Amino acid sequence: KVGWYNAVLQPAFHLPYPDDTLAFVVLSTPSMFDKALKPFVNKERLKIIRDPVDQCVSHHLSRLKEKFPDQKVDIIFDYEILPSRKPKFLAQTAAHVAGAAYYYQRKDVKHDPWGKKIYGVCIHPKYGGWFAIRGLVLFPDIQVPFLEQSDPVDCVSTEEKRIELLEQFNFHWQDGRYRNIIEVKERYSEEQKTYFATPPAERFRLLGLTQ
After folding, report:
1. pTM of the model
2. How many other β-carbons are positioned within 10 Å of the β-carbon of residue 60?
3. Do residues 111 and 159 make contact, with C-beta atoms less than 8 angstroms apart?
4. Are 154 and 102 in contact (CB under 8 A)?
């Protein structure tokens, strides 16, 4: 429910919907690269592609919208920002309140060893850090007052592991070790790792596209 999200954030970040409004958080799993991105690029090869992943997600969520012709459906993508440069929604907070992935933050560590700003990170119980939060799908005309909130799975439950996770994410994020903080069922393929490790301007070549 939108109210779960708004309840944990300052008013500046609130979504402008009634508290009982139904919303879905959309995640991409490791298989998205082969099952969605590559087929999308092959199909759209002759059109202008500026950001393959964003346009692929937009394409699939727009098709989802077509499945509900009688419903108003609002979609907010993770890359969208407001004129103030703030994101349109805080993806990790949304994933946490929806029960999709646990958002580990500085406040989850009792004895804080850091004297600087520390960013939090979501961990999924099945995919660890090998996933992404891509968007929100909202149904403004559907109110669900009786929907019960599910807590996300706390899969990094010890103090030591949480410190290790936040340190790896904040100080060594490039090597991706934080993604394996738990045993995972599936991770990015080597091809996919290479793609996301490549500067955006050079990714077109990997997909066989000209920029």
Report:
1. 0.92
2. 17
3. yes
4. yes
